[in-house]
Amino acid sequence: MKYLDDVINNVKSEAKQLFKGMLLDKRMHIDSSVNEEQRRELSYNLEKILLRLLKEHKRKIERETLYILKEDIMDEFLGYGVIDKFLEDPQVTDIMVNSPGQIFIEKDGVVEKADAAFENEHQIMSIIERMASDSGRRIDLSSPFVDLRIKRGARVTAVIPPIAGKGPLLCVRKILRDVFSLDELLEKRTVNKKMLDFLKYCVRALNTA
């Protein structure tokens, strides 16, 4: 996420270091396994850290900006970073990360550039490693490719250097729980009219065989 000025970016950077230290002091794993009660406590403590740092930097921000800052840090350490919101969005079916500033999503059957970005490749690597760890797998230089399923019911494919020459690549395909009718597939542009007519013809041919 891009912030308004360097002061807020500095506050975020300092808050991340303090938050990481707090997690280590509590001997908590930096992953997505914390329960709701722990998450509420961590969120409360992180907000206090941010407010203290903002006061030290003599910087006032809107409550909404504070919330976004806090959730951004929480997602980075305890979730899957900036793609968390797309994992929670039922209209998004695919998430593709080609670089820190190139995140694409498929929403309602249409691929579009997401209004989100990682800060650097290290963040992408951290998310990939967390996904692998959460699934009991690993990804590193000796094993630079992984294909797995995460707890949220999505299939993840990730490739890192040296196989991925320009940096880590990540693709997440969510498992749909809804069954769509043919008309809904046509409306979402998953199929076109010719494809739909061909499918109907095949079904009729099977029924009359």
Task: Report the CATH C-level class of the largest domain.
Answer: Alpha Beta
What number of structural domains do the residues give?
3
Global Rg: 21 Å
- Helical run tally: 7
| CATH architecture type of the largest domain | 2-Layer Sandwich
Strand order of the largest sheet: 3-2-1-6-5-4
Give the amount of beta strand, in percent. 15-25%
| Global morphology | elongated
The largest sheet, given as strand count, sense and whether it forms a barrel, is: 6 strands, antiparallel
Structural commentary:
With 209 residues, the chain is of the alpha+beta class. It folds into three domains: 6-79; 84-174, Beta-Lactamase (2-Layer Sandwich); 182-209, no CATH class. It is built from seven helices and six strands, in the order H-H-H-H-E-E-E-H-E-E-E-H-H. The protein has helices at residues 6-25, 36-56, 63-78, 84-88, 121-134, 182-187, 193-208; strands at 92-99, 102-107, 110-113, 145-150, 154-159, 169-174. Strands 3-2-1-6-5-4 form a six-stranded antiparallel sheet. Strand 1 (92-99) and strand 2 form a beta hairpin. Helix 1 crosses helix 2 and helix 2 packs across helix 3 (63-78). The longest helix has 21 residues, at 36-56. The radius of gyration is 21 Å and the shape is elongated. The mean pLDDT is 87.
